[in-house]
Structures are given as structure tokens and as C-alpha cells.
Amino acid sequence: MASDNMIRRVNEDLSAPGKADRQRFAREGYIDIHCHCLPAVDDGPTTKHEALALCQLLVDDGITTVIATPHQLGRFNGRNQAAGVRESVSMFNKELETHRIPLTVVPGGDVRLDERICRLLETDKILTLADGGRYILLELPSEVFIDIEPLLVELARLDVQVIISHPERNSVLIRQSGALLKWLSRSAHLQVTAGSLLGEFGSMAQRAAWRFLSLGWASFVATDCHNSSSRRPQMKAVFKSISKKLGQATARWVCIENPLRVLKGQDVLRRLAASTRMCTNETAPNNF
């Protein structure tokens, strides 16, 4: 894959001793699997200057590696195809080095649900996370419920697993506990947004995000940041909040360990609560 050298560099940083920055990455650096940081490709930064400013904020927030996930399909159909995203990431990493911003960017996509997904993966038109061929970040429509179980089965034949992006912000999806559990049993995963946990997308999204996290349904927290003002990274704040409410082990699991596993193409760790099969919206914890 085109990103092998980038991932190899991250792995070397994890194993090489003696340098403070590398030790910090291994000990507490965050990995962001959902980030709109590339300039002028989607609804993220519109200029290179804005993109560099956002990346400096990512570094200031303790993030060492991001998977750039420009929107693919949906209203961006025909844009941000795999080859172009890889080239944009390669060029942008050079800009980061030139400006001495210690952040590694690897390619990925925020893929809108589409019946062509498997074919587009096979023809190298859309991207898996970290270009690793193992996980795809999937955005579902918020206007109508669509059962993605057939897609999960089809993707499994390609050895690809789905990570559903920000389900807590989907008013249709948060009422579908049974479907979510069915999808989780099909090796799907949930990614909640840091801002949702901190209340930035309203009380409904906040409660749903904490519910998914406390029940072990969500395996990832990501920034889904788009700019340096209204949609900025907040991993330090959310890591502290998760540590306080659910323990530091859970915070590390969703902010560091599982994102690293995606980056390296390894199995994601699951921590479903024992009572999760019986959980509904009415019986979910309401103390968050």
C-alpha cells in the first residue's frame, strides 16, 4: 500500500528508545482515526495555511498521528478518489516537515453509505483507514434508517470491517439499539466524537455517546475535526473526562490502543458489557 512507509515510520517511533518525542508517543500520544485536515478537498480547511494551523492544534492537543479522512461518495461522489487522496497526503506530509509540525498523516476516507462500496474498494476508488485494507470508516444517512447487515456480510468476504462514524449524532440510529447490536455481532465497530462527549453537539448526542462508551459498544473516540475554530480537536479534554467517569484504562482503550490497532491493521479490542444484549434506550445508563 502507498502508506506503508508512513506506517513503518510510526512503528519505528514506537520501538526506538532514547528520544523524548518517541517515548511520549508510546506512552500517551493520541491517534486520531477521523480527521478532516487536508486542504481544499472537502468541508475541512480551505487553504494550506488553515490546514497547517489545524495540524498545529492537533499536535498541541497531544495527537501524534492522524488518519486523513476526506469525505468520499455522497455529495462528494466522483471526488477524493483513492489515488488523489494518497497524493494529497504525501504532499501535505512534506509541508508538515517543512513547517516543523511533528505530525504524521496517513490516508483514509470518510465513506458515505453506497451500494457500490465493495466494487469501489476492489477497483481502488475509495480508501480504507490508513490505506491498510482492514477497516473502512462508514457514514450513515441521518434521514432514514438503512440496515447495513448485507453490506457487513459482503465486506467480510473482503476481510474488511466497518467502523461507523459518529452514530451518537444520528437521531435515527440512536433509536435502533437492536440493529446496532446486530451490527456489532457482525464485527462492526462504533466511533464516537470527542465533541459529542463534551456536549458540543447537544444533550441527545452527548447522552448517546456516553451510553455507547459505558456499555462498551464504542471502540473509538476521534476528533472529526474540520477547522481550528468551531470543529477543533479536543482529545486531551475528552481523555480526562473519560478517565474520570469510566477509568483511565477505558480512555486509553478508545483514544490510543484501538486507534493504534487500526493504524497497524490489527484486531480491535472489544469490551461489550455483560448486560448489553438486553439493553435498550429505556434501560441505558442515564447518569451522564
Features:
single chain, alpha/beta, TIM Barrel, six-stranded parallel β-sheet, three-stranded parallel β-sheet, about 290 residues, 11 helices
Describe this structure as you would to a colleague.
The structure is a single chain. The protein is of the alpha/beta class and about 290 residues long. The protein has a single domain (about 5-280), classed as Alpha-Beta Barrel (TIM Barrel), CATH 3.20.20. About 40% of the residues lie in helices and about 15% in strands. The strands form 2 sheets. A 6-stranded parallel β-sheet has the order 3-5-6-7-8-9. It has a 3-stranded parallel β-sheet with strand order 1-2-4, with helices on both faces. Strand 1 (about 30-35), helix 3 (about 50-60) and strand 2 (about 65-70) form a beta-alpha-beta unit. Helix 10 crosses helix 11. It starts with a helix and ends in a 24-residue tail after the last helix.
Secondary-structure map:
Blueprint lengths: L3 H12 L4 H9 L1 E6 L12 H13 L2 E6 L2 E2 L9 H17 L5 E4 L2 E3 L4 H6 L12 E5 L9 H8 L4 E5 L11 H9 L3 E5 H4 L5 H12 L3 E5 L12 H12 L1 H17 L24
Parallel strand pairs: 1-2, 2-4, 3-5, 5-6, 6-7, 7-8, 8-9
Offer a quick outline of the entry.
With 288 residues, the chain is an alpha/beta fold. It contains eleven helices and nine strands.
Low-confidence regions: 9-26, 277-288
CATH hierarchy, class: Alpha Beta
- Which secondary-structure class do the elements indicate? alpha/beta
Separate helix tally: 11
Question: What oligomeric assembly is this protein in?
Answer: single chain
